[in-house]
Structure formats: C-alpha cells, structure tokens
Amino acid sequence: MNKRTVKENIYWMGSVDWDIRLFDSLIPLPDGTSYNAYFIKGSEKSVLIDTVDPSKADELLAQLEGISEIDYIISQHAEQDHSGAIPQVLEMYPAAKVISTPKAKGMLVDLLHIAEESFVTVEDGATISLGDKNLKFIHVPWVHWPETMVTYLEEDKILFSCDFFGSHIATTELYVTDEGRVYEAAKRYFAEIMMPFRGIIKKNLEKLSTYEIKMIAPSHGQLYPQPKLILDAYRDWTLASPKNKVVLPYVSMHNSTRKMVEYFVAALVDNGVQVELFNLAVTDIGKLAMALVDAATIVVGTPTVLAGPHPYAAYAVFLANALRPRINNLSIIGSYGWGGKTVETLGAMIPNIKAEIIEPVLCKGQPSEDDFKALKNLAAIIARKHKEQNLI
Ligand code: FEO
Question: How far is the CA of 24 from the centre of ligand 1 (A)?
Fold first, then answer.
C-alpha cells in the first residue's frame, strides 16, 4: 500500500496485513490487521509516529522514499508490531531521535538493541514543536504494556493512540465505514489484551476526557473521524455492570457433558438468562474472550479425563483467569467415568477471578434424572443471583 493522506501534511503509512491469522502465536485475527504508522510534516520538523511489524518493514521504507528528513521517530509502545522497524528507519535517517517514555526506552534497548544515545525520553504531558504543529505526549500505562503513551496533535486535535482504541481489521478503507464491524473487532481486541487492566484503562480514559478529540488514529485498524463510537464503547466495557449472561465454554468426549450442557442452556433460557455457548473443540478463543467482557457468570462444562479437566477446558479457564473478567459467579458441570479431581484442579487455576463459586454439578457417566434436576436447580440459582445483583 502507498502512503495515504489523512490531512494536509499528515499521512498514514504502514502496512495492511491481510494474511495474519494469529498474533503473538495466541490471539486469533480472523480479519487480519494493519500496522499503522503516521508521518507528520511540520513547518520546521518532521516526525514518524510508530513503525510496523518487522515482517512489513520494506513496505514502510518504500513509503518513506522521497522524504529527505525525519527528525523524530515517536515510539508510543515498545511491542515489536509497532517498534520492530525502528532500526531500519534509523539506518535510513541516522540523525533522527527516538522519542519514548523513559520505561519504553529501556524496553526498546532490550528488545531491538537501539543505541541509548538515539533516545529522547518524554515525561507525561511533555510537548514538542514541529514549527506550526505541536505534539503532546500523554502516558497511558497498561494498555497493555507498562510503558505506553499516546500522542495528541494539538492544532488538529488528533489523538494517535497506538494499541488503545485499535482493532484488528485488514481493509483498504482508511476510516471507519462499518461501525458494527469495527465495534466487534475493537471489542475482541479490548477483551484479548486490555480487559486484565480495566481499572487502569478507566483512569486512562478519564485522563483523555480532558482533551477535545476530533479524530482517533490508532496503530491497528481504521481511523475514527467520529471518536464517540469507540470512546463510548470503551466506557461501556470498562465501567458498565456485567449483563444477565452466562458464558459456557465446554468440551465433550462421549456426549454426556454435551447432554448436560444442552439441558442446562435450556434451563437458563427458561429462567430468563442469556447464554453464550462455546464448544472448545471448535471455537474461536477470541469470541470467548469477547463474551467474557460483559458476562456475569462463567460455567465451565468438562468431562473428567486422565483424572482432571479436559485440557481444552483447562486452557479456557487458564485464559479466563489471565483475562480477569469482572464476573460475579462461577460453576462447573460435567461427566466423569470413575473419579478424579476436576473441580479441585480448575478451582486452583483461577486465583485472579474473585467470583462466588456455586456448587458444581458432576455426574457419573450419562446424566440421570437426578442430574438433570441438579442442573435445573443450578440454572435457577444463577437466575436468582443475577436478579439479586440487579443485572439486566
Ligand atoms: Fe499492537 Fe501491543 O502491540
């Protein structure tokens, strides 16, 4: 892709990655992503904000051809999908200085072996002048690394937000055109990397609320000419109460757990509770993460295998624990053949989840009438708790 004009003397550069399907060898990217860098030409100085993933460095370097000078490379976030091409850009512009937070400097030295003398570090609220344009640096730690900052272009009121407000979408449309698509992609992104830091994200949102923002230009996905969409969404994901919803990741080997799950889902629905069901043998783990953003309850469905939970269930529980969703209630259902420590094992895997544990329902072999009654009772307990918690 060639560079694109955002406004006079402000350009999108970067790469649209149509093929990537897994980020960090972990996060599913069903719609690919983009690595957005931005070039701003001031009357006196020029800056490049962020770079691209190292695998796409050639594309960025080609876009920079014809630009004789870059005074500053602003590294908002040290993760390599944005910083990875800084060494190549520095080779092209050896006099350029890398602007980063003090914490990011250390990380960039460690991760990319950039020379210490190449850096200018900026404290929270620091500004630089490009002549006719001024940039302000706002530290926003833990979106999702500790060193991150965003950059506010004061004259045009554009916020360059790096991962914050980003979405993993590969598209040729520079700006948001399909709000539903972007909302879902941004929620997936929030769920997968920012949900664990919801408390700090809230503080970062409060900090940004004092700025007039006419456009948000993230480092993944499309730009927001109407930032209200994404700002409202982030407030909702960060501040709103969980919903009257059960997330039910499950796996079944010989259909006993599946029968329990199907009965239990129907019982929850009969009690007025919404359910999102994920068969872990086939599910997109990103969808599960998204569902955890606003669910009040998790119920894990797992058979007992090799005396413990099915590894797929253990993986889902491990992930949920890492994502720290703000759920209120948690339980387990499933079938076992002769015994095991499924409940104990899963229970020990969720130290980060401060939820009330509701008595699990485990059955031996195929579920019996008594087991179905226990599932019906579990559904009624969850519905009652959601009502007591005033969830809608
Ligand atoms: Fe898009 Fe945290 O890197």
Answer: 10
Question: Which domains does the chain carry?
Answer: 4-239 (3.60.15.10), 243-388 (3.40.50.360)
The whole-model pTM stands at: 0.95
Ligand 1 pocket check for 168: Cβ under 6 Å:
no
Ligand 1 contacts CB of residue 220 (under 6 A): yes
Using CB atoms within 10 A of its CB, is residue 132 exposed (0-12), middle (13-18) or buried (19+)? Answer: exposed
Q: Rounded to 5 degrees, what angle do the CA atoms 384, 388, 392 make? A: 90
pLDDT tens per residue, range 280-338: 999 999 999 999 999 999 999 999 999 999 999 999 999 999 999 999 999 999 999 99
Token representation of residue 112: 């990319």
CA of 78 to the centre of ligand 1 (A): 8
Q: Is the CB of 79 under 6 A from ligand 1?
A: yes
Give which of 174, 151, 187 is closest to 294, Cα–Cα. Answer: 187
For 190, the token pair is 């929030």
* Alpha carbon nearest to ligand 1 atom 2, residue: 79
pLDDT tens for 91-141 read 999 999 999 999 999 999 999 999 999 999 999 999 999 999 999 999 999
pLDDT digit string (tens) for 236-295?
999 989 999 999 999 999 999 999 999 999 999 999 999 999 999 999 999 999 999 999
Ligand 1 centroid vs 20 CA: distance in angstroms?
Answer: 14
Ligand 1 center from residue 228 Cα (angstroms): 22
Nearest CA to 136 among 146, 126, 144?
126
Distances in Å between the Cα of 245 and the Cα atoms of 20, 148, 256, 270, 282 are 32, 33, 24, 13, 21
| pLDDT grade for 25, boundaries at 50, 70 and 90 | confident
245 lines ligand 1 (CB under 6 A): no
For residue 76, the CA-to-ligand 1 centroid distance in Å is 10
Q: Whose CA is nearest to atom 1 of ligand 1?
A: 163
